[in-house]
Amino acid sequence: MITVSSNKLGKYTFDAKDSSEADKSSAANLSRQSLVDSDYLGTTKFFGTTFSGYRYMETHWEKYHLGSTSYSKRTYVGTMAAFIAAISVSLGVGYYIAGSVAGAIVSAGIGLIIGDTLNINTSIHLSSEKYSHKFISFDAINPRMYNTSSNVTGYEYRITDIEHQNELDNIYYEGLTRIDYENQVTQLFQSMFMNVYGINGTPVF
Fold first, then answer.
1. pLDDT at 4 > cutoff 50
2. Which pLDDT score is estimated for 61?
3. H/E element, 190
4. CA distance 47 to 189
5. Tens digits of residue pLDDT in 44-54
6. Where do the TM regions start and end (predicted)?
7. β-sheet bridge partners, residue 136
8. Which residue has the higher pLDDT, 50 or 30?
9. CB neighbour class for 136 (10 Å; exposed up to 12, middle 13-18, buried from 19)
């Protein structure tokens, strides 16, 4: 269980207390992970149709190292035109021949066109380090009156595969992460608000 207490600066700090077996299990799992970064992200104002005025939600962020793993990346996701151009350059053939090769890939079921995007249904497996992104949110005015939301919402993969030098140190994300918070992705904010208040709210950016 996470409890919230105020300090002289007017901010809130967290005290972890093992008040149940579930909490003890969760704490044990976290202890096997490594906290590598954390930050206070600030306060967001929300309005809604089921409450008057505004509500203010404060959010903290934590990043944990989960260990080494393998990340699967699609061989190609992009436009058909760009794929044909890449074939033409890499094989040294004309655009017409490259287009025929690309068409054959799609016809064989290896590639799937969705709108203007071509997805090649093959992937490579890359060695990587995996991290979780956790957001902790609560009411900024009266935190004890509402829930504290503490959820892992996404993952980060940092590529370490020396066999694929062009991918080395690249970073890929799954789910909702710190990047989505900075980009003000509404889905992330609304999800945290629902966990804290149990009702819908719309963030004011």
1. no
2. 98
3. helix 186-197
4. 12
5. 999 999 999 99
6. 76-98, 104-124
7. 60, 150
8. 50
9. buried
CA-to-CA distance for 185 and 158, rounded, in angstroms?
Answer: 22
* Adjacent-strand bridge partners of 123: 74
Positions of E strands within 104-148 = 111-114, 117-139
3-state secondary structure of 110: coil
Residues 6+ apart with CB under 8 A from 165: none
Fill in the DSSP letter of residue 1.
-
**Pairwise CA distance, residues 187 & 22, whole Å:** 28
- From CA 122, how far away is CA 119, in angstroms rounded? 9
| Residues 142, 201: Cα–Cα separation, whole Å | 17
Contact assessment for residue 133 and residue 63, using Cβ atoms and an 8 Å cutoff: yes
Strand partners, 37: 63
Confidence of residue 11 (pLDDT cuts 50, 70, 90): very low
Model-level pTM greater than 0.85?
A: no
Q: How far apart are CA 145 and CA 111, in angstroms?
A: 53
Query: Which residue, chain included where needed, has tokens 């260990």?
Result: 67
Distance (Å, whole) CA 77 – CA 28: 39
How large is the greatest C-alpha to C-alpha distance in the chain, in angstroms?
A: 71
Report yes or no: 136 and 150 within 8 Å, Cβ to Cβ.
yes
DSSP-assigned beta bridge partners for residue 118: 78, 113
d(CA 119, CA 83): 10
SS3 91: helix
Under 8 Å between Cβ of 138 and 197: no
Dig out the tokens for 106 from the structure.
């799609």
